[in-house]
Amino acid sequence: MSKETGVAIVTILELPGVTEAQYEAAGAALPPGAPAGILYHSCGAIEGGWRIVDVWESQSAWDTWLDTHYLAAIGVAPARREAMPAHHAGPVIR
């Protein structure tokens, strides 16, 4: 969780026109290992593109990763780039 606020953030990135193959190619072009500050990652196809929903330790960690690495690798301007404080971020207890 963020040292600044003590709250993780949920992020949504929507990439118009991106396919699974483009997503995988971008991932292969990124530095190895998990980005600093990421806690959870999920993604999948949506109508007309690709959506990535993650949980990050902080807004600054997400912004740094996107602006320094990811957007250049994927080569598409996001149609949606949103972050919000997480009320809960962790395992689901059944």
What secondary-structure arrangement, pairings included, does this model have?
Blueprint: E1 9-16, H1 20-29, E2 38-46, E3 49-56, H2 59-74, E4 80-85
Antiparallel strand pairs: 1-3, 1-4, 2-3
Structure summary:
Helices cover 28% and strands 33% of the residues. It is built from two helices and four strands.
What do these coordinates show?
The chain is of the alpha+beta class and 94 residues long. It has a single domain (9-85), classed as Alpha-Beta Plaits (2-Layer Sandwich), CATH 3.30.70. The protein contains 2 helices and 4 strands. A 4-stranded antiparallel beta sheet has the order 2-3-1-4. A hairpin with a 2-residue loop joins β2 (38-46) and β3 (49-56). The mean pLDDT is 93.
N-to-C order of helices and strands: EHEEHE
Give the terminus-to-terminus CA distance. 23 Å
Instruction: Write the CATH architecture name.
Output: 2-Layer Sandwich
Oligomer: single chain
Structural class by secondary-structure content: alpha+beta
Q: Which sequence of strands runs across the widest sheet?
A: 2-3-1-4
Tally the structural domains. 1
